[in-house]
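Support request, priority: normal
Reporter: lab tech (M.K.)
Component: structure prediction queue

Hi team, I submitted a job for HupE/UreJ family protein from Alteraurantiacibacter buctensis yesterday, and the status page still shows it as pending. I've pasted the exact input below so you can check whether something in the sequence is tripping the parser. The sequence length should be 336 residues. Please let me know if I need to resubmit or if it's stuck on your end.
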Amino acid sequence: MRWLLALLLLTPMLAFAMPARADEARPLYIEAKATSETTLDLAWRIPPNFAPGAVPNLVLPADCNLDGSMRRWSDGIGHQRTARFTCRQPLAGRGFTISYPMGNPNLPTIYRAVLPDGAATIGMRLPGVTQIPFPAPTAEAQGTFTQYLVLGVEHIWLGFDHLLFVACLVWIAGHWRRVVATVTGFTIGHSITLAVAALDIVAVPIRTVEVLIALSIVLLAVELARGRSDTITWRHPLAVSSGFGLLHGFGFAAVLKEVGLPQEGLLSALLAFNLGIELGQLVFVAALMVLVTLLGLAARRLLPLLDHERFAALPRLAAAYFIGITASYWMLQRAL
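Reply from support: The job had stalled in the queue. We restarted it manually and it finished. Here are the results:
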């Protein structure tokens, strides 16, 4: 069963990690505020460990002109731009295009749109999607709870480092009952810190958090490379998942603080975002376990044909080294 899980993990990791940068938790953030039907104030930023020249241009329809000059600056949260555009025709229903001058760096986009009446919509776009409608991509009929729920689901599915960590937890836990307990511990841990960080009760440096999240994956990879042993990770995965869950919660909160919480329905939006993360995480774990079970049934016919003692450890070691190298690259990139 272990080697089957290794093969299963290697496939999505190859798809996820090869093009991914170390900034999955810090997307391109765009805020578009319409002061009238034809006037739009735009603000956008990318994470700080990109080159300033990588900041994209936002290309509006041909009838829209820049008012004054574009403001540019860099600080601890990223490289930022602000600009005001005036259009001859209403912008609603047309939107704009993201144009990366140095090539698309595979960043997801969080987009918040504010209409002239003050109503706001938010949404997330997958990496590579550059056409952004106005207002935001989420349906206008959706309420705040639904929008933040969808945002949470989309974020966990785009958070390759978090998914990689969860996949390692599933591997180490092994049996489905231990998997349920271990993932529940991770959920409780990150829910606590997500709440306290999003509500500004506790503040931590996001770059430090991102480095430590990558380090947590490296530590699990080391455990996988060593194999089952008498360590706290293998004996008590629930304790490990709960502890590291506190750390990952700060990473989730970083995205939520990028978007911001509404003044009205703040707790509802926070709950919805957290539920979205849990829903996306449960779907991922369930799909992983179902595939492992199906492959396990198929393996009962295949294993007698193989030298199990000789080949059993190879996939585990390959997966462990792949996870460790990928997470080490993320850790170094986030630290520099």
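Confidence is low (pLDDT under 50) at residues 1-25. The two ends are 39 Å apart (CA to CA). Let us know if anything else looks off. Ticket resolved.
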